Amino acid sequence: MNKSYLFVFLLLFAWACKTNYPDIPHQYHTLLNSALVKAGDNAPELERALAESTKEQKEGMAFLISYMPKRDLTTLSADFLLENVDYAYQARAKYSWCAALPDSIFLNEVLPYANVSENRDEWRKDFYERFASYAENSDNMVEAIMSIAHNIKDEVDVEYNTKRSRVDISPLQAMKEHMATCTGLSILLTDAYRAVGIPSRLAGTAMWTNYKGNHTWSEVWIDGEWQFIEYYPDTLNQSWFVADAGKADPDNMLHWIYAASYKPTGMPYYAAVDAPYIMQAVDPNKLPEQMRSRVERMKDEEKLEPYIWGHNVTERYIDIYQESIKNSKLNEDELMANIVVFANEDTSVSESRLSCRVDVFEGDKTINFGYSPRKTDDMNQFLQLKLKKESNYRFVVSNPEKQINQEFELSTESTLTQDIQLILTN
Fold first, then answer.
1. How far is CA 240 from CA 104, 328, 397, in A?
2. 200-249, pLDDT tens digit by residue?
3. Is the pTM of this model over 0.90?
4. For 53-131, where are the alpha helices, taking DSSP H only?
5. Topology of 108-272+308-328 in CATH?
6. 330-423 sits in which CATH class?
C-alpha cells in the first residue's frame, strides 16, 4: 500500500476509534471522521464546535462540518460556527415558517454560513437582529420575503456598482464599501433571508445565450417550490432577465441556469465564471474573444477540486418564461408562433424533434431567438415567440454539434396563434 494512503487510513482509523457522537445521527459519523482528518491542525476547533453545541443543535453542526469545503475545515473557528448555528436555530424556534421546514431544507438552505466563494463573515447575529422587524411584522413568509426585498437596500446601504473590490464580495465588505454587483447583492439578500429562517440560495448563469454577460440572483423556497427574487425586486418569479433565462440552451452547460447547494450534489456550481475549477469545464472557443485569454490563463493554474455545488435548474426557468409569454397580452397585429424543429417529415413523434437554436429575422434585422424543444420534452411544448401577423420572416436553424445550419422563409397568418414546423432537409 502506498505510504501516503496508509497514513490517511491510519488517521481515519484513529479518529474513528477516538471520536464518539452519541447525539448525532449515524449517517454523519464517517463524514465527520473524514472531515476532521482533512482539517489537520484546525481539527480541535471543529471538535470543540461539536462538543459545545447543544443537543438540539448537534445535527446542524455535524451537517456543516461533514460537507464543509476543505478551505473552511482548515480555517474556521469553533466560535464562528457556534454563533452561526445558534442563531440559525433561534430563527427556527422563533418563526413558524422555519419551524415547519423539512430538516433537509433547513440544513442546506437556512443553516449555511456562506453561499459561494465569498469571505466567511460573521454576519448571522447582525442580520438576525437587523431583519427581525421585517419578519416579525409579516403575517407569513411570502410577506416577509417581499418586506425584506423592498427594504434591504436602505437597511444595509449597498447599491449596485461595478467599482466594488471583488465579484463575490462578502456581506460585511459590501456594507463597508457600500457597493456590490449582482453576485454580492444576491449574497446579501440570501443571507438576510436565511437570518430569519427563510430558505434561500443563489442562482445564476455563467453566460447568457446571446453572450452579453452573466447574472446572479436569489431563490426562496415557498410551499415546496423554488421561486426567484432580486435585490432590486419586481415580485416573485418576475424580473428583467426572465427572457434571457428562458432562452437558455439546455444542451450547453455554459448557458445552463444553476442553483447553488452547500451539500455536495455531484455537479459544481458553474455560474461563477471567475472560479478556476469552473474554467476547466469551459471550452474557450465557445466564449467571446475578450474572455478567452482569461480562461486559458486560469486553465494553466493549479487544479482545484470543486467546493461550490449546484443543481441544473434550466428547465424551470424555460418554463417560467414560456408561461409568461402565454400570459402576456398580444397586440392586435401580433400572433403567438409555436415553433418546433424536426429532423424529418414524421412530425407526429417526439423522436423526430431536434433541439436547435432558432434565430428569427425580418429582412436583415434579428427579431428574436430561442431553442426548440428536444425529443425528451412534452409534445405540447414549443418555442413560443411573438411575431407580427401577415409578415415575412427568415428562420435560421443551427446546431453546431450536429453540423446543422439551414434557413427557412415563410409568412405568418392573421390568426392569434400559428404552428410553425421547421423540417430539416438532408
1. 31, 14, 26
2. 999 999 888 887 778 999 999 999 999 999 999 989 999 888 988 988 98
3. no
4. 58-66, 70-73, 78-94, 96-99, 103-109, 124-130
5. C8orf32 fold (3.10.620)
6. mainly beta
